Amino acid sequence: MAKTRMRSIYEALELIKQIDPESALTYNSIRKLCLDGKVKHFRSGKKIILNYDDLLQVVGMEEEV
Fold first, then answer.
1. Please, are residues 26 and 32 in contact by the beta-carbon 8 Å criterion?
2. pLDDT by position in tens, the chain (length 65)
3. In whole angstroms, what is the distance from residue 24 CA to residue 20 CA?
4. What is the DSSP string of the chain?
5. CA-CA distance, 2 to 13, in Å (whole number)?
6. What residues have CB less than 8 Å from 13, skipping those under 6 apart?
7. Long-range contacts of the stretch 34-39 (C-beta < 8 A, 24+)
8. How far is CA 54 from CA 18, 63, in A?
9. Which residues, other chains included, contact 4 with Cβ-Cβ below 8 Å and sequence gap of 6+?
């Protein structure tokens, strides 16, 4: 069973920029995907912790492992 990679929005955005430096994704666009229920996430205080693999799938950037 694969580990679930949980990341903050800022961490997820940084990893996406490493994959695609010219990506148009922003903090707010990822936050909106979470709040619209399109990406699995939970809140820890005010911080949103999201499922990084789910985010990649939603935006069509599945990583080759």
1. no
2. 578 899 999 999 999 999 999 999 999 999 999 999 999 999 999 999 999 999 999 998 876 44
3. 9
4. -PPP-EEEHHHHHHHHHHH-TT----HHHHHHHHHTTSS-EEEETTEEEEEHHHHHHHHT-PPP-
5. 21
6. 25, 26, 27, 30
7. 34/9
8. 17, 11
9. 51, 53
